[in-house]
Request: fold
Amino acid sequence: MRAPPIRAAAVASTVLLIGVASALGAGLAWGLVFIAPLVLPEYPPALLACGRYIAFGLIALVPAWFDRHRMRRLSRADWREATKLGLVGNLLYYTCLASAIQLAGAPLPTMIIGTLPLVIAVVANLGAERVAWRRLALPMGVLAAGLALVNHHEMSQFDAAVSLTRYGLGILAAIGAVACWTWYPLRNGAWLKAHPTLAPGSWATAQGLASLPPALAGYLIWGLLASPASGFDWPLGPRPLVFVAVMLAIGLLASWLGTLMWNRASQLLPAALTGQLIVFETLAALGYAFVLRGALPDPATALGIALLCAGVLFGVNLFRRRALSAT
Reply:
């Protein structure tokens, strides 16, 4: 029996609200990953990536034990998919991101990776959940204007001492990160929607467990092959307590909790909307960067942030009207 229109509309609005709140929580958690390479500049990017996902995998052992009945029900195909998602969306993405930040500083990679909301929304809209481009024009246009204003300020923070070669390598690494994270949320969202019985928490835990063996292997290989030549004090580096604390923090918050909340958003929202909501990560990273600098945003950046928030609201309202019209 079909639900009354008013009740169906209320359910659609609630689902949308929960999905957006989940994406916001994921963005706040993921913004932390931009801070780690700045807090630990003397640590190689590959080691930061492996350390983060070793922490993620070890932390995931705890919920895996309590959720062991669901974990046993995961098929071989599920584990293969979790491994692919972990390798590309976790290890490779974060290696590229940390490399870009350490090579070129934070502003340039932030600018390039900040295009993810637009890139993902465009690629997602080429798929099955297609929305008329004219309807996406307003939210995406406002997001683009906000990103341009925010990045205009960030571009002024360039370090003149960094060589053009390092900037070039940083750009390539940042583009690699964009490619990884355009593939990851779309693939992850499609898998979750094709397997609606997968619990978001169980799937986050599975990705953590699947990331642990390659992260451990990468950490050991780097220690055996690269650390002697670089003079790096392997395994925990010159600031072991800070390194372990940062890895555990982002392993728990950015990796496990962020992935859980993003999985929930991916199950509830259309891919074109979740693509736009990646902007929460950009906003969070900006906020954390200003806290580290001990400064407030200049007027242009503040206007850019306001436009990013407005773009999100326009996008959410678009999909809210679309959901209501379908009830």
The longest helix spans residues 164-194. Residues 117 and 279 are 6 Å apart (CA to CA). The two ends are 13 Å apart (CA to CA).
